Amino acid sequence: MAAPVAKSGIAYGANAGHITARREEKPRATNSKGNNHSKHNAFVRDLIREVAGFAPYERRIMELLKNSRDKRARKLGKKRLGTLRRSKKKIDELSNVLAASRRN
Fold it and tell me: Both ends of the chain: CA-CA distance in Å?
């Protein structure tokens, strides 16, 4: 999208409209949501993952990733998590877990 052109103050023409000052928008809460990466938080999440293990759909996605069915894994994740963006994030997380288990 092109940069906004300054208004001329005239009611007609290419740059028609009132001359206004741009308002500074406050940062929205959604931009910072989920960026809570403290050491303690990471430790607790890791501990919970160790105790509780993986959900059945996560185990199924991991099995699909092992068999190189990436697209099918993304589709399953999308169905279970609601959006493709969440699905991609989850698949990235699970493929990192698989890679770590292969290294050990």
Answer: 49
